[in-house]
Amino acid sequence: MSKTYIPKEISWLSFNERVLQEAENKEVPIIERFKFLGIYSNNLDEYFRVRVATLKRLSQFGARSKTILGYSTKATLKKIQEIVLSQNTKFEKIYSGLIRELDNHKIHIINEKQLSTEQAEFVQKYFHREVRTRLMPFLIEKDTELPNLTDDAIYFAIYLLKKETQKKRFALLEIPTHVLPRFIVLPEYGDDKYVMFIDDIIRFGLKEIFFIFDFDEFSAYTIKLTKDAELEIVDDISESYIDKLSRSLQQRKWGTPVRFIYDRKMPDELLKILTKKLNFGPDDVVIPADRYHNFKDFMNFPNLGRKKFYYEPMVPVSHRDILSGKSILSAIKKKDIMLFFPYHPFDHFIDLLREASIDPNVTAIQITLYRLARNSSVINALLNAVRNGKNVTTVVELQARFDEEANILWGNKLMEEGVKVIYGVPGLKVHSKLCLITRVKNEVSQRYAAIGTGNFNEDTAKIYTDHLLLTTNKKITNEVFKAFNFFNVNYKKDNFYHLVLSPFFLRNKITLLIENEIKNARSGKKAFIYLKLNNLTDNEIINHLYEASKSGVTVRLIIRGMISLVPGLKDISENIKAIGIVDRLLEHTRFMIFCNGGDEECYISSADLMTRNIEHRIEVTCPIFDKSIKCEIRRIFDIQWADNVKARVFDENQSNKFVKPGKNVINQSQIEVYKWLKKVNEKTS
Fold it and tell me: Under DSSP, is residue 167 helix (H, G, I), strand (E, B) or coil?
């Protein structure tokens, strides 16, 4: 593997280790640490479904796969197996430690063998009332195939034994966590609280499920299968895009297995039967683990009423230019407004849509939809606009990974109500975050645009940091209008002078911006590039950044997830420093600042600097013209760059070492950004 390029799949595992570090960190409240275990687990599931699955597909091309990817698939898959097994050991150690800590706080997670008489009665009643009717076992026979195992589920592999005759049978049973909570709170004893996994409630009642057989020993071992989740969309013009997608979603359910996790206490005989029936070989990812899987369920661990176990809430701060009971459209007309979620409330955007939906002078609303909240107020506002006679157009991306089915349902609902629905661009994901409101008064049109770095989703806006620019600046609004025309009129490309659209212009624009800094550095001028992104993996852009470093440009990178660039290499990247911040909020906002000879250029973007975002997605990168907003973004970057609590330094070994804490000043950037925004948004009387 190249010294100057870290495969993105390996870099991603380094990011997930930073999540695991938060679960290990004793400064983090204890239930939040359990949640970080859940986030780590959920992340890893998606990683195997998508990234590992893609590598396995590519490996079928043999030597050609290295040409396609730039590095060896086989060596990368082997390295992934090593890292995942090592992280799994760490994960289990952290989990055991957290269970002990909970015990010290008089909260006990107990199993079916630790119940008191009173608790056993409660569990038996719960099993009869809620669980038993949902359990449907499948008997495993030598000559039968296993049923199609659901990718997102956990199962019991069950071992039935008659001791006297040594007669055995095996069965499979899905644990019904899709309809029942994973954790059940049991009756308390004094100050002590008790919680039980639904898994162990099933173990408690297992004998009742197999009562027709004459067995006297019943053992259940959790297994979990992860499948290839990438969609195969055959390019067939005779078939509608939506029909193709619906069919390939069905195919996903039969995806190729890419990972098998099992309880390491499972008898070898049962393990061999399962791996043989699932066609797992020596090169496949088979992971021995502890008793419980699907730790993502810890993201919804029951609230046991102890405030100190949770983060103190950060109450969103209203933006100083958006006044309660006053028109937001009027506020945007006066000046550009930059919202920063979740520090600012997402309600500001909902209120804007609501106002537009009832304003008699608003004629049209156009919006791109990628991922939506479960009960979306955005959708409700759009439906309200249609009912009030507005022309509403939505560009719904059907390939928003794992949200495809939801987006098909939303699309159908919108169409039924009279919304014009455009289903993305075949071959290109529409990942841009755009909204355009058109208002006509006295035959004069006024456009209001919202350009963001994250989805119009009020659920994720509570935990993801994202910027949303609200503007009436014609340089921007006219080009947002052109972007919607592109979706509307057979994807006809127009000229863009301010907005930067990928896949058409982004690579060229970033290259020009970097080359400008190189030129300035070589002529002795101050030159810097500051990037705040989720991922940086595009080889060509990384090489341009190396060239900038060699020319004396100061490069500072704040990257949350994957970074294939290697900072600090002698004669290559000595002027590049990079950090990653993992804290209570998911760092999702993307912005870029270029020195430009002292007249700084600043952009927000929906795009990461990954080849897929640059070449295979419709993304929008937007310049910031307003000086005060430019200063605000620069200030946010500086606060984050100075983080000495949650920032990790990136190096060639991907060691994830924390930035050395300052002697006097403690700077936890998410808290400091919140404090600063609170201060600047205080209303002056």
Answer: strand
Which tokens sit at 57?
Answer: 């597909």
- Annotated active-site residue 431? The verdict is yes
Q: What digits encode the pLDDT tens for the residues 510-545?
A: 999 999 999 999 999 999 999 999 999 999 999 999
CB 259 within 8 A of CB 229: no
Position 1 scores a pLDDT of 52
pTM: 0.92
Q: Which of 599, 461, 442, 456 is nearest to 517 (CA)?
A: 599
Q: Which residues contact 100 (CB under 8 A, 6 or more apart)?
A: none
563 touches 535 (CB < 8 A): yes
The domains located in the chain, with CATH, are: 8-309 (3.30.1840.10), 328-495 (3.30.870.10), 501-680 (3.30.870.10)
Q: Is the peptide bond before 345 cis (omega within 30 degrees of 0)?
A: no
User: Looking at beta carbons, which pairs linking 597-605 to residues 24 or more positions away fall under 8 Å?
Assistant: 597/520, 597/525, 597/526, 597/527, 598/525, 598/526, 600/630, 600/634, 601/513, 602/629, 602/630, 602/633, 602/634, 603/500, 604/451, 604/452, 604/453, 604/467, 604/469, 604/633, 605/453, 605/500
Residue 683 has pLDDT above 70, yes or no: no
Q: Which of these is catalytic: 431, 467, 544, 588?
A: 431
Q: Which of 83, 63, 60, 64 is nearest to 9 (CA)?
A: 83
DSSP-derived secondary structure for 30-51: HHHHHHHHHHHHHHHHHHIIII
Number of H helices and E strands in the chain, helices first, is 20, 27
User: What tens digit of pLDDT does each residue of 197-209 get?
Assistant: 999 999 999 999 8
Q: 245-253: long-range contacts (C-beta < 8 A, 24 or more apart)? A: 245/398, 245/399, 245/404, 245/408, 246/408, 249/404, 249/405, 252/151, 252/227, 253/148, 253/150, 253/151
Residues in Cβ contact with 72 at an 8 Å cutoff, skipping those fewer than 6 apart: 1, 65, 66
Check residue 624 and report its DSSP letter: -
Separation of CA 454 from chain center? 11
Residue 665: CB atoms within 10 Å = 9
Amino acid at 485: N
User: What tokens appear for 100 in the block?
Assistant: 């002990």
Report the alpha-carbon distance of residue 102 to residue 243 in Å, rounded: 50
Q: Which two tokens stand for residue 623?
A: 């310049």
3-class secondary structure for 329-368?
A: HHHHHHCCEEEEECCCCCHHHHHHHHHHHHCCCEEEEEEE
